[in-house]
Amino acid sequence: MTTMDTDQAAAPRPAPDATPDAGVPVVEMQDISITFGAVRALDQVSLRLFPGEVHALMGENGAGKSTMIKALTGVYTIDSGRIVVGGEQVEFGTPAASQAAGISTVYQEVNLVTNLTVAENMMLGREPRRLGGINTRAMNRKAGETLQRLGLDIDPASLLGDHPIAIQQLVAIARAVDVEARVLILDEPTSSLDADEVAKLFEVMRTLRDDGVAIVFVSHFLDQIYEISDRMTILRNGRLVEERMVSETSQLELVKLMIGRELEALEQIDREVAATDSADTGAPVMKVLGLSRKGSLEATDLELHEGEVVGLAGLLGSGRTELARLLFGADTADTGEVQFRSERRRLRSPRHAIDRKVAFSSEDRKAEGVIGDLTVADNMLLALQASRGWLRPIPQSTRTSLVQEYIEKLDIRPADPQALMRNLSGGNQQKVLLARWLITRPEVLILDEPTRGIDIGAKAQIQATVAELARQGLSVVFISAELEEVLRLSDRLVVMRDRRKIAERRNDGVSVSDVLEIIAGEARQDQEAHPRD
Amino acid sequence: MTDTLTRPTPSGSPGPSQAPQRRLRASSSTKALLWPVLALVVLLVVNVVATPSFFDLRIQDGHLFGPLVDIARNSAPVMLVALGMTLVIATRGIDLSVGAIAAIAGAVACVHMAGSSAEGAFATAAVGCFTALAVCLVLGLWNGFLVSVVGIQPIIATLVLMVAGRGLAQLVTDGQITTVNNDSFSNLASGFVLAVPLATVVAVAVVALTALVTRRTALGMLVESVGINPEASRLAGVRSRTIIWTVYVFSGLCAGLAGLIIAANTRSVNANSLGLFIELDAILAVVIGGTSLAGGRFSILGTVIGAVFITTLARTITNVGIPSEANYLFKALVVVAVCLLQSPRARAALRVRRVRPAAPSSAPTAKAGPA
Question: In this prediction, does ipTM exceed 0.85?
């Protein structure tokens, strides 16, 4: 096993000043399996972390990245496999045990106290004491030293909440490494940062790497992975795909490894919806110009036509969901305007969009769709009722017939209008939400991941419904992490990456590998064109 | 599957078909009212044991009298305040200012009547009351504005008026206890309609009207929707701002009406004490009635039962002869007990406790074996 390690470590691009013990992993997770109920979240996954390297943990949603991290940080107990830290086998029963072993984590959301000072946050729980009280001066000095070591110019005595999220994140990192961290886990640290802030973060990461810290980096931004990481481990569906040196893996290869289906097999899938040409004729139902929002989407144009399904393809975090939300007014855009058939305006709330016959089903069914304690009937009629206002209740007979119609049409089970929404399965909830919008008779229907996490039968039915709706003249925006699904349903394809639209084309025989090519290929040309934005 | 014969099936187990599910749901909503009703019955029984004449009703001058009638009358203010509070709580909010609003309402009405040249006239009372309610409407608008437009947390937003409102009431009364002599006004508390106390009739009418409006229009459903999942409601196009604003206005009006009844009862207004702590009684009534402080589904009937319970409890304290110094403590203990009874988790824990005493006795013997 050790010989294999040294082989790998001697790969072409080691950390700049590789320390002598670079060949011995500081953490080795071997054949880790974790099962939740009937779901196997991790199936014999291994991960090696070497001192002085940035290790990217790659995979799509549900690949097992967070489960792996939580196994390492002691949040989850492992069912089988072993974890070796610094040559000793360990068992982390609690997060505290993992921290004591030198493994620190900074999560996506900053878990700090905004109304304490920077120094207080950094030293929380281990403040220097004097005479039974906290020695503020010593605390500020110690915190200041750590910040300085990381090259951060932050006043330790300032309030954390006064700083932007990016700085708070850096403080969280400073806190994490201050406890003699051998391993630092950064879970999506860049998702809410802009380019300058990311650069600052990377500087700190490089400093730490050069100090011999092993950094686990999780990010959905491929460019960032390539800029900072040395090695990566790719997971898919709870299994290990491969460990690779970043310098030896092209972006296309990486995307293929992450999405991972046999490309040949994929290309044989026949599309049910042939690209229709009718869409080009006539004015668009909805058109956006220069729609943008800081931190989520760069200026984007898009036209939506009657009877056309526009598929948004891209990895998670590429801006596909962000675009959908801006189209609906769920988030307000910083710039850009939306043009409907007869008017132009800025969407300031979902109501503006709904009043103009736009409907949006969020990817987060539970948090942003389902009203769990209300009945199926109430859930279904919510949007229509909301647009009528509370003073004009939907007449009982209309209620009954509408609900009955959609329960039958979409085959919702149980076929009981009075069943509580939270007791339905995911697929049936999704159908109820689809019905909620169809009842409002929209002209534009935006579906963000409508088939995620639902059983195959419900999935097929939702796909069939979408195709049928488009035939009836509805303009549909369809988002899915599954490229095959997007390709099968879309007439036109919009490819997103790094919060931008990078390509738009008719879906005339576009294959999955074409799309992957676009997603992966764009990066290199792009970096040459304008190095950093 | 095979052990169905040996394992006793729980009585309320949901069946796979639709019919049992529907029955289960119906029973679960009545079950929610089971505990408050039970608590109320227990309280009444305690009273009857202490005073056998507790249930006696007599008719005098065509009016009903008796301890139960007193309870019905006295629960009117709490019932009204709790009614408004129910809708506020259903939207995940809370209204702490109701006591102060009640005081302001009483102050405005009484000061108007006391200052009028025709102090005893019905018209004076009517104008006074309507002016007071108009002021309460404005106060409700203010609360709703802070919560729904400015976005201040409800507890803080209404705390502003809870504190400032008392001061406002004192300004209106000039710091004096204002007494009024207006029979029409005092009838609001002590009058009768068809042998039933007018205050009860007013409260029940408002409750019934509210129940009708919330359940016959879509207001109830939208209030619950906003309370259960604000973000999903927003994305479904619910004008949550308007809804939330409306419930605070309604709560203000209810509090104002309660304040008028309280002032009518004493024929005076003391800005410092009118409706003091009524917000807490109202919140308790709502919670006892089974509406969750986390928002969402609300039960107006439950709130009514809760309000009657709170009033009966106050009556019980005097009736059973608990020393007045211990009376708040006793009230607190009873309320804690009722709330615990309602919580399925607490009931489950209680059940486990009851089983547990057997365990320690068997444990030592098991240990003794191998030794």
Answer: no
